[in-house]
Amino acid sequence: MVSFFAREGDRLVAQQIAVSPWSDAMLSGTGVCGLLARELEGHCPEGFVPARLTVDLYQPVANAPFEFRSEVVRRGSRITVVDAALVQEGRERVRATALFLTPGAEPPGQVWSSAEELPMPPERPVSPDGAPPLFKSGEREWDSDFIANQNADRKFAWHNLPALVAGEKITPFQRAAVLGDATNHVCHWGSEGAGYINADVTVTLSRLPAGAELGLRADNTIAADGVSIGTATLYDRLGPVGVCVVTTLSNARRQVDFTTATTVGADEPRRPWSRVDG
User: Per-domain residue ranges for the chain?
Assistant: First the structure.
């Protein structure tokens, strides 16, 4: 069965899709964000739902043993805040915060909201192993061709993810966390490839995703002097779920060019981009 991580004793060991496209010695942000969501949701009180996840990716995570530290910062009647950190060799590599809220009745009245189209591909058979992602650039049809989608058009992505940890069913919150990191992919995949790396990821949720499929629609990219902000709408077949924001740094020296499946400027070719990484 395909998964991001498998168990070896009391350890979680990265599988191929959890390894970074930049270096086989590092873990991808997608899997790391998913694992932090897994750690944090263990502290979600009954009757609460995840409303925000923020991950600070301030150090690379090695493809090596790791552990987690977590604590409840605030537990109230309507708001709970939990912090977590991924630790390697006694040092925190990545930290995250989750906000859990209690749902309730909508207030009266009407407010403005965007009515932009959220395109969806035809439904595919659901498999516990997931499925390769589909992409849509501008007015093109959905397909899984990385080369054909390497252009400057607006990007959409549609994912059916495998398990985060082998033997465990991926949860809606974990699914949203993985796709939050992939916001970089839809917002910063341009005509020459992908040249930004995430410094942080924020996923805000008005509700949890429904079903096995989840999409991203690039909404905006704002860049200056090697720092770029990407925003995307997270949605499922019922409609919008939330908004994802990534703050990124230029990595032009090791830009991923999907037309050659190599890293531009690197000393040696890199393996092809992971099918779910962003």
Answer: 3-101+129-263
Residue 266 has pLDDT above 60, yes or no: no
Residues 97/92/38/210 CA torsion (nearest 10 deg): 50
Q: Which of 251, 249, 278 is nearest to 265 (CA)?
A: 251
User: Which is nearest to 130 in space by CA: 258, 18, 267?
Assistant: 18
Residue whose tokens read 């397909």: 143
3-state secondary structure of 166: coil
pLDDT band (50, 70, 90) for residue 20: confident
> Where is average pLDDT lowest: 80-84, 125-129, 165-169?
125-129
Contact indicator for 230, 246 with CB cutoff of 8 Å: yes
220 is written with which tokens?
Answer: 């905006």
Arch. (CATH architecture) of 3-101+129-263: Beta Barrel (2.40)
Helices and strands (H, E) in the chain, number of each type:
3, 17
